[in-house]
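User: Structure please.
Assistant: Input sequence and predicted structure:
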Amino acid sequence: MSETIFDKILSGEIPCHRVYEDEHVLAFLDIFPLSRGHLLVIPKERRAQLHELSDDAAAAIGRALPRLCRAVLAATGASAYNILQNNGSEAHQAVFHVHFHIIPRQGEAGLVIGWKPGQLANDEAEKLKSAIAGALEG
């Protein structure tokens, strides 16, 4: 895995506006925010995509996210927010170190999503259900 800007932030080589830090997680203000209070939350474990994280690193992120969301809402006065997490360049991941965005929605500022839902046929649903359940067991 190539060194990323997040590695440089974690090492202290590049400064950031740290909001939260513990043994496993670092949260800081995004310097290119979509809205006021936009945070980036990263594991200290160096992995490119979410499925590569250890259970411990994933659990630490899971514990920190709700607490950070509450703090962003309280600090910004926003009443809505998005959590965004991308995996792979095809999914718009630009920095290949796992990271979550907490993006408060404030008026027109925030994340804009284009959603084009399809339909899931029952026979396809049954196949997918079995395949995913089987992968969980294996």
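The longest helix spans residues 55-76.
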